[in-house]
């Protein structure tokens, strides 16, 4: 967090006000939340909540791979952890988080009930076309990157990660990718063959593990299919070398930041994009003033 300005300075140049979803260690320690206070006071960002259960009190569960997905916890415990995180953010950052992103994308129906009970307005946890069930997590393989609303109770906007398929297969890429992902075909590296031959490639709009050309190709493909909402995401530790697999040294860090900058330039210049904030987008859909 001491180097988050490396990303924020890019966003400032393009008039982007990012949403920082923060977990308990960041919300609890001045070294974590301190760098964000100026961005909050100058209205240059939005603060949301990001629940990593293994570092979020109360610690009443066994720490395990299964329980790293908060949606696998007892509903009451998941809700208590989320309430504790909300309280910590309100106390130390003086803002009420209304946007949520589950750590490891660990969201289920019980999570949605907790979000509505705590008056959250936006969820950012859906990771389309991804299946985490081999890791004991949720399955998003039938979702796409289009936003959608849940209107029962507190209206909740789901703004998925931008994930999709590019290549010769076009809109059939998802079907081919699912077939190629079958266990029986794994020894043949069928997914890699589809990607290398240009038939279909699953890409996430993120500078982590994706080239700038891949990110542009994804945006062009989805735009051509009628998508008009794009969400670029990454983990904040990637702005400093040595904390994620994507950025191990200074050269990789510079390239990582250049991919963010390059995509922003492409998005505004070529696609004619405009910056948006999740809470404002929700308000525009519901035709009500954002909180």
Sequence-ordered SSE layout with sheet pairings:
Blueprint (H helix, E strand, L loop, with lengths): L4 H10 L4 E4 L1 H5 L1 H12 L4 E6 L23 H19 L5 E4 L6 H9 L4 E2 L24 E3 L5 E3 L4 E4 L6 H8 L9 H7 L4 E4 L7 H13 L25 H20 L8 H9 L5
Parallel strand pairs: 1-2, 2-3, 3-4, 4-6
Antiparallel strand pairs: 5-6, 7-8
Helix pairs in contact: 1-9, 4-5, 8-9
Report on this model:
About 40% of the residues lie in helices and about 10% in strands. The chain is globular and about 50 Å long. The mean pLDDT is about 90. It has a domain at about 5-160 and about 230-240 and about 270-285: TIM Barrel (Alpha-Beta Barrel), CATH 3.20.20. The strands form 2 sheets. It has a 6-stranded mixed beta sheet. The protein has helices at about 5-15, 25-30, 30-40, 75-95, 110-115, 175-180, 190-195, 210-225, 250-270, 280-285, and strands at about 20, 45-50, 100, 120-125, 150, 155-160, 165, 200-205. Strand 2, helix 4 and strand 3 (about 100) form a beta-alpha-beta unit. It starts with a helix and ends in a 5-residue tail after the last helix. The protein contains 10 helices and 8 strands. The longest helix has 20 residues, at about 250-270. The chain has about 290 residues and is an alpha/beta fold.
């Amino acid at each position: 967090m001491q180097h988050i300005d490396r990303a924020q300075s890019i966003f400032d140049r393009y008039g982007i006000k990012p949403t920082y979803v923060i977990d308990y260690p960041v919300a609890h320690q001045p070294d974590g939340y301190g760098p964000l206070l100026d961005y909050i006071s100058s209205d240059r960002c939005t603060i949301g909540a990001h629940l990593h259960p293994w570092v979020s009190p109360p610690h009443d569960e066994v720490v395990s791979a299964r329980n790293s997905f908060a949606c696998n916890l007892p509903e009451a415990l998941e809700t208590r952890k989320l309430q504790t995180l909300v309280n910590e953010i309100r106390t130390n950052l003086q803002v009420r988080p209304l946007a949520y992103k589950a750590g490891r994308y660990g969201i289920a129906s019980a999570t949605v009930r907790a979000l509505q009970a705590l008056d959250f307005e936006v969820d950012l946890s859906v990771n389309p076309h991804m299946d985490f069930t081999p890791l004991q997590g949720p399955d998003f393989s039938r979702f796409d990157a289009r936003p959608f609303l849940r209107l029962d109770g507190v209206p909740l906007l789901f703004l998925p990660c931008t994930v999709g398929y590019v290549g010769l297969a076009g809109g059939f890429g998802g079907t081919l990718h699912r077939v190629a992902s079958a266990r029986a075909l794994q020894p043949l590296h069928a997914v890699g063959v589809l990607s290398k031959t240009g038939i279909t490639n699953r890409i996430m709009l993120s500078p982590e593990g994706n080239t700038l050309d891949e990110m542009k190709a994804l945006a062009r493909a989805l735009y051509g299919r009628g998508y008009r909402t794009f969400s670029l995401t990454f983990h904040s530790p990637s702005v400093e070398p040595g904390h994620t697999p994507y950025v191990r040294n200074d050269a990789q860090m510079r390239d990582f930041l250049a991919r963010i900058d390059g995509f922003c330039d492409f998005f505004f210049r070529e696609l004619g994009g405009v910056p948006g904030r999740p809470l404002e987008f929700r308000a525009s859909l519901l035709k009500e003033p954002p909180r």
